[in-house]
Amino acid sequence: MVDLTTKLGARTAERLKQEKIIWLTTVASSATPQPNPVWFFWDGKSFIIYTQPTSHKVKNIDHNPKVSLNFKADSKIGDVVGDVVVLTGEASLDKYPPSHDSRYLEKYRDEIPQIGLTPESFAKSYSVQIRITPSKLRGT
């Protein structure tokens, strides 16, 4: 578990509440990092992400559960570059979750129709839950 009471931790906690997208990096069997933007829900201890059963993320996590997560870095031209947040941890897969977390579906209520799905069809298509428990936090 990462400490969200430090200065960096407090900024991270705020971004966990506000951000809609986080970059999930898994590692392919060829040892090549595979970054992908994903929707997520932070439950206070873990990231909850849903994906399709045939996604490369599932294959990669089956092969190697070590992952990293990062937010888009907000940077300024000049002297100040900041708000870089990188979390690392281990992912686990639940290929048969009982149902999607209603908090997750509520968070993406407006985005789900934009990809041509309903909450019900989203839950059927994105039926594998990825749970990531972060162990390290670094950033600026």
What features would you highlight for this structure?
alpha+beta; 140 residues; Pnp Oxidase, Chain A
Helical residue percent? 10-25%
Q: Name the CATH class.
A: Mainly Beta
Largest sheet: 7 strands, antiparallel
End-to-end Cα distance: 19 Å
**Total strands:** 9
Strand content: 35-45%
Give the helix/strand class.
alpha+beta
Describe the 3D structure.
With 140 residues, this protein is of the alpha+beta class. The protein is built from 4 helices and 9 strands; from the N terminus they run αββββαββββααβ. The protein has a single domain (7-73, 82-139), classed as Pnp Oxidase, Chain A. It has a 7-stranded antiparallel β-sheet with strand order 2-1-5-8-9-4-3. The mean pLDDT is 90.
What is the compact description of this entry?
This protein is of the alpha+beta class.
Indicate the topology:
Blueprint: H1 7-18, E1 21-27, E2 33-39, E3 41-42, E4 47-51, H2 56-63, E5 66-70, E6 74-75, E7 81-82, E8 85-94, H3 102-107, H4 119-125, E9 128-139
Antiparallel strand pairs: 1-2, 1-5, 3-4, 4-9, 5-8, 6-7, 8-9
